[in-house]
Amino acid sequence: MARPIRLGNVRLNHEQLTILMTVIVALAVVWVVFRFTRLGRMMRAVADNPDLAAVRGITRSHVVAWVWLIAGALVAVSGVLIGLDANVEPQMGWTYLLPVFTAAILGGIAYPMAAVAGALTLGIADELATLVMPVHYRMIATFLLMVALLLLRPWGLFGTRWVTK
Amino acid sequence: MIVYLIATLTVVAIAALAGLALNLQWGLGGLVNFGLYGFYMLGAYIAGLLTIQGLPPLISLGAAMIGVSALSAVSGLISVRLSDDYLAIVTLGFAECLRLVISYEGWLTHGMLGVAGIKRPLQELWPRGFADIGFLALTLLALLLVYVALQGLARSPFGRLVRATRDDPGVVEALGKSVLDVRVRVLAIGGAILGLAGGLHAFYYTYIDPTQFGPIITAYAFMAVVVGGRGSNRGVVASAFTLIFLLEGSRFLIDVIPGLGACRTRGHPPVSGWRGPGRAFDLQARWFRQRAALGACQQDIPFLTPERCHGPRYPLSSRRSLPDHLKPLWDRMTLYGPFEGQAGAMANRLPIFEHMWRLLTQLADDAVLPKRYLELAIVATSLVNQCDFCVAQHSPKLAVEGITPEGAASLLDWEKHPELNDVDRLVVEYSIAVTANWHRIRDTVIDRLRAHFSEAQIVELTWRIALCGAFNRFNDVLQVEVDV
Question: Any idea which of B165-179, B210-224, B238-252, B373-387 has the lowest mean pLDDT?
């Protein structure tokens, strides 16, 4: 294992750098697919109005299958990255369930890229919460944040109102 | 076999109660309650904690029902405005937070140690030897009462209203009924039944700890409702009985099909994903392991036989087999406590025994590092490594320093530990960091240590923590016993 890189008072592990770069690449790919490809447009159409999308000749099951494929690949990548930073164990998915949902809700469920901002906000809020509550209660901070959002701004920090919950 | 049947029937009846509660909430009311196990757990804890405070068990059970019902209603107020998947994640998050609080608020819930010695209701009524049958009768009676009540509810006008809110809340609102009101009531009634089921769980096992309650309870309830048919109480009871009997029955396959059984190494949960052997007996096994740790014999438990773990995995050396020049060292070792098992394992390779114990005794003679900090470091490290044997070995040494066995077992919660002073906390924090996070220890940690310890002491402390990690692995892998 290589020694961590030191930038002033900040220590950065090599794995953390790898993770950061992989995430940026993955995000760029997803963004391009969403924004500029035919598949991305089809996805947005189905999410927006399935009936109208069907009328325009989009096969819903086809799009859904693609969504699962991409989501599965992303989840697999994230699992590997988590394994790099923390450790791999049977319960690891369970630990991330709540934060992941919260991040998605935080960003606004209809905007995939907003989940990134949501996750960052959540991560910082989580770390700050440890100043006022014990570390092992971090999940409670996540949960409270999620509940507050669902009650006050169910369309997310960045989304718009039309999403029904 | 009769004992087994009674045990299984009791567990099935409790599971059927949880299934009925879910059938009301989700089957009739359309409220996806993934956090069912949290409410169930809360019921068990209210009933258990009140009972050991000396309250009559039946009154504790009533309190559990009321408490869980009230909390369900409150959680409903924040979450019933949400649609299916959001409600599911909120209830799940709620249950998980509840489990965290119960695990860590040891002053209230006894934390991970669990609540032991819970008295069952009406035990004095049954003749000696019929306690389990009596409890089964009580559980079945509770199941019958709940079933009749729910059947009545389903046929009543309120039942129709509940089904209507499930099928189309908009129409119900338009007809002038409050959907929120109906849903909160459904959650409250379901909560009362979950409180009852949880309370019966606590009474049946007479011992509860946070690890008994997980999403698998929710999963069983959903399986019962899905198989039985959403909305059908009769179907739920029938499927609960069928399903749990299948799950329980499958444990006998271990004897027939090789490779299914997961023999546990001491102190660790089974690693294999096979969940065949039913929960009931997992719990009983845990309970008996606890008793075994307290000195009762594990051999007399018939249904543990297929999974009973073997003894030490190495030939034991004893004083007799040592060369003469090492015998004095062996005698000194025995002064430190019941370390014959570990030393006997080491003595299979004499240099290991000789130099390790020379090191240990010489470090003890010099006494550079106060014993209190050394033992705190060893117990904390062994807790991180889940080496039950090592924790058991060293907790008594902490008792000399004024730290209770319960306190020693909860060292990992060092931040607010009542029995530790600031230097103790620093030592425990450092031990955990060296064991679990050694490649990320910051300079500030060492600086804080320097404020209280000399360089030699820091070196010895670090060495002893690392060595303790080695001992943990050695003892665990070779299955060193406490009293060989």
Answer: B238-252
Q: How confident is the model at residue A106 (pLDDT cuts 50, 70, 90)?
A: confident
Confidence grade of residue B14 (pLDDT, cut at 50, 70, 90): very high
Judge whether A8 is closer than 8 Å to chain B, CB to CB.
Answer: no
pLDDT in tens, B52-68: 999 999 999 999 999 99
Q: Which of B102, B112, B99, B137 is nearest to B218 (CA)?
A: B99
Measured distance CA(B93)–CA(B75) in Å, rounded? 11
With CB atoms and an 8 Å threshold, state whether B86 touches A150.
Answer: yes
- Are A150 and B97 inside 8 Å of each other by CB? no
**H or E stretch at A109:** none
Interface of A with B in 144-163 (CB under 8 A): 146-147, 150-151, 154
Q: How far apart are CA B357 and CA B99, in angstroms?
A: 43
* Cβ–Cβ under 8 Å, residues B358 and B332: no
Can you list the alpha helix ranges (DSSP code H) found in chain A? 14-36, 38-48, 50-55, 60-85, 92-107, 114-132, 138-152
CA atoms within 13 A on the CB side of B484: 20
| Two structure tokens written together for A75 | 């989840």
Q: How far apart are CA B161 and CA B441, in angstroms?
A: 60
Query: Do residue A98 and residue B90 have CB atoms under 8 angstroms apart?
Result: no
* Helices and strands per DSSP (H, E), number in chain B: 22, 0
pTM equals 0.64
Our CA-based measurement puts residue B152 at a distance from the nearest CA of chain A, in whole angstroms, of 32
Residue type at B296? A
Q: Select the residue of B93, B100, B273 nearest A137 (Cβ to Cβ).
A: B100
Answer whether B389's CB lies under 8 Å from B474's CB. no
- Would you give the end-to-end CA distance of chain B in angstroms? 33
> Nearest Cβ partner of A147 from B78, B271, B273?
B78
At residue B80, φ and ψ (nearest 5 deg) are -75, -10
Contact yes or no for A150 and B439 at CB 8 A: no
* Chain A residue with Cα closest to B97: A140
Amino acid B72 reads: S
Task: State both tokens at A129.
Answer: 């919460």
Distance from the first to the final alpha carbon of chain A: 47
Secondary structure class of B139 (helix, strand, coil)? helix
Give per-residue pLDDT as tens, A47-98: 888 888 888 888 889 999 999 999 999 999 999 998 888 778 887 887 788 7
Residue A101: which of B83, B89, B104 has the nearest Cβ? B89
Beta carbon pairs, A and B, within 8 Å: 60
- In chain B, residues with a C-beta closer than 8 Å to the C-beta of A101 are 89, 93
Shortest alpha-carbon distance between residue B104 and chain A (Å): 8
For the record, the structure tokens of B439 come out as 């490649």
The DSSP bridge partners found for residue A6 are A11
Q: Which residues pair with A11 in a beta bridge?
A: A6
> In whole angstroms, what is the distance from residue A45 CA to residue A64 CA?
12
B interface with A, Cβ–Cβ < 8 A, is 78-79, 81-83, 86, 89-90, 92-94, 96-97, 100-101, 103-104, 215, 271, 273, 413, 415-416, 439-440, 442
Kindly determine whether residue A143 and residue B93, on different chains, have CB atoms separated by under 8 Å: yes
Q: Name residues 22-41 of chain A within 8 A of B (Cβ).
A: none
Give the whole-angstrom CA distance, residue B15 versus residue A162. Answer: 41
